[in-house]
Recover the amino acids of this structure.
């Protein structure tokens, strides 16, 4: 007995067989990274807020001197990197879901990636300058 269903891949859903698409096999990693960065940002942001509250004044010189400490600079870098990556992931989902014109969608996705790279580069250079200049 041979049926047409036996010729199809056994793991496809009926709708997938009709459309000929099957599973997209992607998206779970994006969701996991979004949640991981959100959880990681909780203690990092609490640390940042606690630091800002405990500074005697928020004058530029004092804040720069505090941020110039290597451990503080490293913590600031990880906070900004996690925040920018989290924002990039979120904006990517919003653009993919709500921008329907393919040309505009691709342009916006490229722009988000470029802006994320520029922002993390600026943060890195600023923190390196602070640590070196001391």
């Amino acid at each position: 007995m041979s049926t047409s269903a036996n010729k199809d891949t056994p793991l496809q859903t009926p709708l997938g067989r009709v459309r000929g698409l099957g599973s997209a096999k992607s998206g779970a990693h994006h969701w996991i990274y979004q949640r991981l960065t959100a959880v990681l940002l909780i203690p990092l942001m609490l640390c940042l807020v606690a630091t800002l509250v405990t500074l005697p004044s928020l004058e530029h010189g004092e804040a720069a001197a505090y941020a110039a400490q290597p451990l503080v600079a490293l913590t600031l870098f990880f906070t900004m990197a996690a925040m920018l990556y989290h924002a990039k992931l979120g904006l990517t989902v919003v653009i993919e879901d709500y921008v329907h014109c393919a040309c505009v969608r691709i342009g916006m996705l490229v722009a988000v990636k470029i802006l994320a790279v520029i922002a993390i580069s600026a943060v890195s250079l600023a923190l390196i300058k602070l640590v070196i200049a001391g």
